[in-house]
Design a protein that fits this description.
This protein is of the alpha/beta class. It is built from seven helices and eleven strands. It starts with a strand and ends with a helix.
Length: 256
């Protein structure tokens, strides 16, 4: 079985984030790491490989500087990687990003595609679902357990209020994996050495994006919310003050 795991480079959680000079994305953070949910997806793929054999292919859409994230995935156990190099990947909307990844997945002939539930930076939570639609594959979201029996997948999904749901899917399929499905492994020294010999295919990101995929979303401005305090004195008697308070809550604070 050939499993593809989509991973993404995001700023580390320790980074002090601020908008860049163009106001459309963050300035250079202190460091980068792979998105947390993607680490769980990678671990799920590696465990399936250990149980059933096959190959795990890490697929990353991002700038050339994201090569370290690719190397980490290889050091953890991925067999090879495809790096879709796009220096303005953050400007792609979810549909465009999914289309780039789906184009590579189609070329690879993957049996199973795993993605994290959502990325740590933009958090759209749409990549896996859109890839499934573009590839015409079965899919399941918020997956917390995966079992493979031949060409059949049995998955457990997390629902609201502590409920869960079990479902069966036929391969090929796309699963979006919930954080906490299992404990991600660390890259060992042996794995780091082995990763240096594993192949990484570089793909032009602009060429991977199909020409017929429209722009569905544009990031206009990125900014840090300004915290301020304002005091409004309500005058008059109790009835007038109550009416003024309701007016403020309804028309200014917009909480009613």
């Amino acid at each position: 079985m050939k499993t593809g795991v989509c991973i993404k480079q995001v700023p580390t959680r320790e980074s002090e984030l601020a908008p860049g000079s163009d106001g459309c994305w963050i300035a250079d953070p202190e460091g980068y790491d792979s998105s947390e949910a993607d680490n769980y997806a990678l671990e799920a793929g590696l465990q399936l490989k250990e149980q059933h054999g096959g190959e795990v292919v890490a697929i990353l859409l991002g700038p050339s500087s994201a090569s370290e994230v690719v190397k980490t995935a290889l050091a953890k156990g991925a067999d090879r990687a495809v790096h879709i190099q796009h220096d303005a990947a953050h400007q792609l909307d979810p549909l465009q990003a999914a289309a780039c990844l789906a184009a590579v997945a189609r070329e690879e002939g993957l049996d199973l595609i795993l993605t994290g539930l959502q990325s740590d930076d933009q958090g759209h939570g749409q990549t896996g679902v859109l890839m499934a639609e573009l590839l015409d594959m079965a899919h399941s979201t918020v997956v917390v357990d995966i079992a493979l029996d031949g060409a059949q997948l049995r998955v457990k999904r997390e629902l609201e209020g502590g409920w869960s749901q079990r479902a069966e899917l036929s391969l090929p399929a796309v699963l979006t994996v919930q954080s906490g499905i299992t404990q991600p492994r660390y890259a060992t020294f042996k794995g780091i050495i082995a990763a240096k010999k594993k192949p990484v295919l570089a793909v032009d990101g602009a060429g991977a994006l199909p020409a017929d995929v429209p722009v569905s979303q544009v990031l206009d401005r990125l900014y840090v919310p300004v915290q301020d305090k304002q005091t409004v004195m309500l005058e008059g008697g109790p009835a007038e003050q109550a009416a003024a308070l309701v007016d403020q809550l309804k028309n200014e604070a917009r909480v009613l």
